[in-house]
User: Fold this.
Amino acid sequence: MDLIERAAARLAQQENKTSKTEAENVVDAREEAPPRPVAVLHRSEEHGLPLLKLDEERLRQAGMVVPDSTRSKIKEEYRHIKRPLLMNAAGKGTSVLKHANLIMVTSSHPGEGKTFTAANLALSIAAERDKTVLLVDADVVRPSLGALLGFSAEKGLVDHLIDPTLDLGDLLIKTELPTLTILPAGTPHHLSTELLASTAMQQLTEQLSSRYRDRIVIFDSPPLLPTTESCVLAHLMGQIVIVVEAERTTRSDVRESLERLGALPETAVGFVLNKTRHEMDPGYYGYGYGYGY
Ligand SMILES: Nc1ncnc2c1ncn2[C@@H]1O[C@H](COP(=O)(O)OP(=O)(O)OP(=O)(O)O)[C@@H](O)[C@H]1O
Ligand SMILES: [Mg+2]
Assistant:
């Protein structure tokens, strides 16, 4: 059974499990209030530069990966999710990928959990001994990493693309985890798709991919079906994670997203099943390369 068929079978199983009343009760994430930030921006006492301090209690309450020694179900799930991504990034997957350390997190629709997944992946990979993580807010149309991580309106990716002489280092926000750094989306711009398709973006991804061998770059990105930015971004990535929301994303959404994505054969595409309510569900359901097998 190919990857899409397995994904479709799994979704069909879920659809059968969901009674109509249950489905009607599923909360529409787009109508939910913005999350309480799980981090706070401080000025570093040493250099006066912004430093993001993670709030472990809030991370725990939000059901996120907490960077401490405690065990949790979510940490275990992200161990499973990150493993194939890290294998690919290390060139130990079944295919040779270009820019294997650049990972885009996307989904079909708004509110399916892209930002939540990107942030948890970043936290989980930052806990690896020999990896550093750059978490990029590439959802330049509706950036929301700042709302989750407690920073606002910083200059970032867009500003660098408009003026590549702006030093990237000056745009980064360090966190108290030495292995985790953030690049905010920056100033909103009406030509966001064109900026992501620009030579400046190509050069940036090239530089991010090649400068440090141990670095994993995670791009939180816009939804695939209502916007064009993610399709453009996809061609610069080595790996793409598609978030599928349990009991909401349909089989045809997944198929259409894959078609829109038009991922190149040297790109790995995987899926994360998010917001599952079934205790026995492992939280993810499959991983594959390219698409169509
Ligand atoms: N597995 C989860 N457990 C608990 N809350 C979750 C989970 N996934 C997402 N959420 C919550 O659902 C809401 C929507 O998630 P998120 O912002 O990550 O979606 P998104 O796909 O990035 O949306 P957008 O397309 O608007 O950027 C947020 O409040 C987030 O905290
Ligand atoms: Mg988001």
